[in-house]
Write a structure and sequence with these properties.
427 residues; alpha/beta; Aspartate Aminotransferase, domain 1; Aspartate Aminotransferase, domain 2; seven-stranded mixed beta sheet; four-stranded mixed beta sheet; 15 helices; 14 strands; binds pyridoxal-5'-phosphate
Length: 427
């Protein structure tokens, strides 16, 4: 299987595009080699420029919960596009998607659509600051909340992949207002809020961390955070850009029974198109313009084509879909664990629903420190072994494998078999 056309495109891209890519992790820096350029996707599979077919566990970083080119998503998008794709004015689709989301996620009474997860978290923090009239934000090591300034220290995803402790271009003022604590450390939360709780506008967290691999919340961690925020008059922001509609219709907040004040969404609610959203309690959301003084706007926000993709995607989700996702994902988890057990490399698989985190580690992975101590070089070798066998994994050890409802038991079985071949070759 050649990859010459992808390589040639990457050379062209590198001359005119920074790093040859539109987002850093895509550049394969941590696994080595050069990125694939994709031409086609159907269900659980993608094809690259050279015509190679792969089973896809990136699924547009989790946005495609039904896999690629799902027929009713395509139909919705086609129908909407033919009648005009953008008005910069209200349209029916926004109302429908807003209703679908408010009905599913109980803490969201009112919502505002934006164009990305980054915009959602950035706006949610501005809103929390406007509501509380405080400056500080508490966040957690290895969580990723998009690329807005306040979130770019000790962050997950590309920041972890490229081993960047912070980003250049973020002012010392922003850094001073961000407090970063270890994920899953309830004690650290309690002492931080005791120390300066009356200055903290909000705590933001991925309720299931999905940008340092997958790290589920430890028992009591989210409760401690909820309590600390309530006691200090700070707002709790659940960044459910990944977990929203991924771990269930009600998101992680329903799964763990914790009610945040503000929720951010993205990925799945856009069905493969650029959409983000933030929503929450009515009294908080009413501060957003035009109802209130917290300004936030967008030329393409609520874009009807993107809304149509989101509507079609959410309408396909039900108890059966989640049951199926749970079964196939569990088979993947158990298959990988059993193969590693037989062949040798120490392997930890963290899984919540169809979020699967693979760490080459002999110890449990419960926070960012553990995730960084896992063998990322072994992950890189595993990535290439799998790629050569026709499996596309995230090109970074600090990302989540996403199973879609289009993945079949046969896809999973084939993946597990290949994992055995790849691990045997490595050992
Ligand atoms: C992907 C992601 C974001 C950022 O969303 P973009 O659409 O990439 O800007 C924010 N938070 C979490 C948890 C994410 O996974």
């Amino acid at each position: 299987m050649g990859r010459v056309k992808s390589a040639a495109l990457y050379r062209r891209a590198s001359k005119v595009m920074v790093g040859g890519v539109s987002s850093p992790v895509r550049a394969f820096k941590s696994v080595g080699g050069t990125p694939l350029f994709f031409t086609k996707g159907k269900g659980a599979h993608v094809w690259d420029e050279d015509g190679n077919r792969y089973t896809d566990y990136v699924c547009s970083w989790g946005a495609l919960i039904h896999g690629h080119a799902q027929p009713s998503v395509v139909r919705g998008v086609e129908r909407r596009t033919r009648k005009g794709s953008s008005f910069g004015a209200p349209s029916r689709e926004e109302v429908t998607l807003a209703e679908l989301i408010c009905r599913s996620v109980s803490s969201i009474e009112k919502i505002r659509f934006v164009n990305s997860g980054t915009e959602a978290t950035m706006s949610a923090l501005r809103l929390a600051r406007g509501f509380t009239k405080r400056a500080k934000v508490v966040k957690f090591e290895g969580c990723y909340h998009g690329h807005a300034d306040p979130f770019l220290t000790k962050a997950g995803s590309g920041m972890a992949t490229l081993d960047l402790p912070a980003s250049a271009g973020v002012t010392s003022g922003e850094i001073a207002d961000s407090v970063t604590l270890p994920f899953n450390d309830a004690g650290a939360v309690e002492s931080e809020f005791k120390k300066e709780g009356d200055e903290i506008a909000a705590a933001i967290v991925e309720p299931v961390a999905g940008n340092m691999g997958v790290v589920p919340p430890a028992k009591g961690f989210l409760d401690a955070l909820r309590r600390a925020c309530s006691d200090s008059g700070s707002l709790l922001i659940f960044d459910e850009v990944i977990t929203g509609f991924r771990v269930g219709m009600g998101g992680a907040q329903a799964l763990y029974g914790i009610k945040p004040d503000i929720t951010t969404l993205g990925k799945i609610i856009g069905g493969g198109f650029p959409v983000g959203a933030y929503g929450g309690r009515k009294d908080i959301m009413s501060l957003v313009s035009p109802e209130g003084p917290v300004y936030q706007a967008g030329t393409l926000s609520g874009n009807p084509v993107a809304m149509a993709a989101g509507i079609a995607t959410l309408r396909l989700l039900n108890v059966k879909t989640y049951g199926r996702l749970e079964r196939t994902s569990r088979d993947l988890e158990e298959g990988l664990v059993s193969v590693a057990g037989r062949i040798g490399p120490p392997l930890v698989v963290n899984r919540v629903g169809s979020m699967v985190g693979v760490f080459f580690s002999s110890r449990p992975v419960t926070n960012f420190k553990d995730a960084k101590e896992a063998d990322t070089k072994a992950y890189g070798r595993f990535f290439w072994g799998m790629l050569k066998g026709g499996i596309y994994l995230p090109p970074s050890a600090f990302e989540t494998l996403f199973v879609s409802s289009a993945h079949t038991s046969a896809d999973i079985a084939m993946t597990v078999n290949l994992a055995a071949v790849s691990m045997r070759r490595q050992s």
